[in-house]
Write a structure and sequence with these properties.
Layout lengths: L15 E3 H8 L3 H9 L5 E4 L2 E5 H9 L2
Antiparallel strand pairs: 1-3, 2-3
Length: 65
């Protein structure tokens, strides 16, 4: 898998998904998302205690599985 370039600009119309939404939509565990994050495969932002992921990054990872 390819590491995401975190310096790449994020389009204004990009969709951020809550962790719970990603888990339900893509049937992935919270641990899997955490591991992808730690490996630099996902861009994310944390607001308060909630983690959000870019939908396009999730699709990119899943298309390579």
């Amino acid at each position: 898998m390819q590491i995401i370039n975190s310096l790449k600009p994020i389009p204004v119309d990009e969709v951020w998904l809550h962790t719970e939404d990603v888990m339900k939509l893509f049937k992935k565990s919270e641990k899997t998302l955490y591991n992808w994050r730690q490996k630099g495969l996902l861009r994310y932002k944390i607001i308060g205690r909630t983690v959000y992921y870019l939908r396009s990054d999730i699709y990119q990872i899943l298309s390579k599985e």
